[in-house]
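Hey everyone, long-time lurker, first post.

I ran two proteins through the pipeline my lab uses and got sequence/structure pairs for each. Pasting them in order. The first:
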Amino acid sequence: MSDLRIEPATLEDLPLLADLLADLFAHEPDFHPDQAKQMRGLELILEQPSRGRIFVLRNNLRIIGMINLLFTISTAEGGFVIVLEDLVVHADHRGQGHGGRLLNHAIAFAKEKQFLRITLLTHREEGRLVEFYRKHGFFESEMVTMRLLLTSGSGAAK
């Protein structure tokens, strides 16, 4: 365990990060794995650090897990906030505290950079996930998640 470290992801990590997301999205009813989309989304974040950060937990052999933080501004909070978009640990390494380690790193990063809030979405029916986030200080909001999917030829906002 001592060879594990959390560090910013790099462009060279893209294929491994996309693989982790494929596993995550295969278990989420709202999303579907699409390697090209995941690679492009990850690349957009890594290309512009002002958009967010992706941190990876790795050892000398592989990436164990990742957490993806997106930055935005909240008028309610009057400043910068984070949307925790993805947190995933490789299936072979789950149940060993790695997700908590990544989440604690993200929380420390947010505090250090003086972000005002972290928001995330998780499935209500996944009690263990809800409880995991509660253990780390998150609470359920009265807000309801709603989406409007927009499709375009380019797939990206300019």
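...and the second, right after it:
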Amino acid sequence: MTVDDFGSRIATVWSELRPATRGLVERALQSPAGGSQGSRNFQYDARSDLELSRFLAALDDRAAEKTDALDPETGGKLKSIADTCAAVLLEKTESAEVFTQLVRRAQMQRDYRRIDILADALTSRFPPSEICELARSEDVVVRELANEALARCPISVLAALLNDPVDADTARAALRRQVAEYGSEEARELVSALDQTDDLY
């Protein structure tokens, strides 16, 4: 079975992947767990993220088509490749856009365990600025996951974000949540100081 069996769009996107990115997917497919264990030494970058995201979108779109063009074996293989591609992205990505794509995919599949894994990845791997971007998402689930992650961020991380004109309001909301939900005295003092500063202007 070749990529051409899945249709022209998938074949085109696959052909546009850099050889290193194609190798990343191929090694992940050969790994016993169906994940990306064989790719840990691969130099992953933003372009890999973009390429894999486009490839996953093409695979998922093809799988969602209501057509008899794919026989059950080909359809099963298509889903397996899509799941593997998503697993690679789940392990590697630090992009707000790709995170949103993966959350929406998990929602469509009602895969709540994967949403939990994504939430853990958000807390452990994503830069604070990307989490803030996700906290402003139009997607309710994405927004809540991001706000929960921010509410568990160290005070020092949130304090640094207060100097960012884009992320300051999001960081302040996270501090208020730390006060309300976790009773953080340090957060309370910082919020109080911010409110006093506001009163001066």
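Reply from user beta_strand_b:
Welcome! Quick read of the second one: Residues 1-92 form one domain. DSSP finds eleven helices and no strands in the chain.
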